[in-house]
Amino acid sequence: MHKHIVLLPGDGIGPEVVSAAKRILDAVAGRLNLTLTYEEHLIGGCAMDAQGTALSQDTLHACQRADAVLLGAVGGPKWDDPAAPVRPEQGLLALRKGLGVFANLRPVRVYPTLVDASPLRAEKLQGVDLLVVRELTGGLYFGQPKGRFEENGRVRAVDTLEYWDYEIERILDLSFQLAQSRRGKLTLVDKANVLESSRLWRQIATDMASRYPQVTLETVLVDTAAMRLVSQPAAFDVIVTENMFGDILTDEAAVLSGSMGLLPSASLGKATPGLYEPIHGSAPDIAGQGIANPLGTILSVAMMLRYSFQLEQGARAVEQAVERALAEGCRTRDLGGSLTTAEMTDAVLQRLAF
Ligand code: NAI
Ligand code: MG
Hints:
Blueprint lengths: L1 E9 L3 H18 L3 E6 L4 H7 L5 H9 L2 E6 L14 H12 L3 E7 L12 H4 L3 E7 L7 E9 L2 E7 L4 H17 L3 E6 L5 H14 L6 E6 H10 L6 E4 L1 H15 L6 E5 L5 E5 L16 H13 L4 H16 L13 H10 L4
Parallel strand pairs: 1-2, 1-3, 3-12, 5-10, 8-9, 8-10
Antiparallel strand pairs: 4-5, 4-11, 6-7, 11-12
The structure holds 1,4-dihydronicotinamide adenine dinucleotide (NAI) and magnesium ion.
């Protein structure tokens, strides 16, 4: 099997963690009869400097033609002027839109040896292994009308929470499938006591549930879900929710694991290359020092193997190698250790077993 990957290292520690993850991909490919080819492009601040835009058309087209895209991070103090007409994050937004990805998947696992890093007590964290699926294309961030309007000398600001049935159907369908491939539980988070769009989500989810008899569907109001994420996080398997609720809950869930540097993500659509990236930013405070934690990007590569290449065996091998490295005490500085990015990557490579 041949797969073509576009690498978008971006800014700050992005290039450091992407080159670490590429070493893992190459090692897995060598074991699984997989031939990988790569091309590398600019995105974010480095693209603004070199090309005057945070994402060039050439780069977007290369991503659209690829089998998968691996991104590091974008942004940094150099491009932080809020008044600037172009900003690094515009590259990310344009990429997500150009790829048509509508589901952002953020798995959160708590590693037994890292419970000290979490703000929650160890007994709460036992068995936390959840996946938040956030809708990316609809809701308050895009609904129309949107804007400021002057009426009778007063200013009115409007955002509209809007969803079409097809937008809800495609992400719920994916979420039921994900729940089926995991522990068989799907939690729809909404605000159906107040919002009409939430009532449509609930209706479609309830109808769809009959097509997935192995999956148990529960519906939870977003305020209750926010509490349960810290009071009983291990009770969740797959959580699916609309764009803004997902934005908030994914950050809340990320804190459970205790380190941003560990967490991967995938953004998926239908018949479009998946986009894989760690959830952390460009970490300008440690960029260029070779000490960034590569595990969030390495685990993103595991998600690529699983969701874009259907290589579950490769995905598991990477995840287990990460688990073993952590269990055996390998730590970068953000986790209280002293390993460099390259040494942590070596530790994972040494533990890859098929
Ligand atoms: P950040 O995630 O870059 O850093 C927050 C803290 O976590 C820093 O102390 C950093 O050193 C540490 N950290 C993050 N990733 C790490 C890793 N892999 N290993 C070790 N330590 C790590 O978030 P911050 O500081 O808010 O943003 C910095 C820049 O990144 C900004 O320009 C921001 O706009 C951008 N950003 C980009 C994102 C993306 O590309 N998806 C996401 C979030 C922020
Ligand atoms: Mg956020």
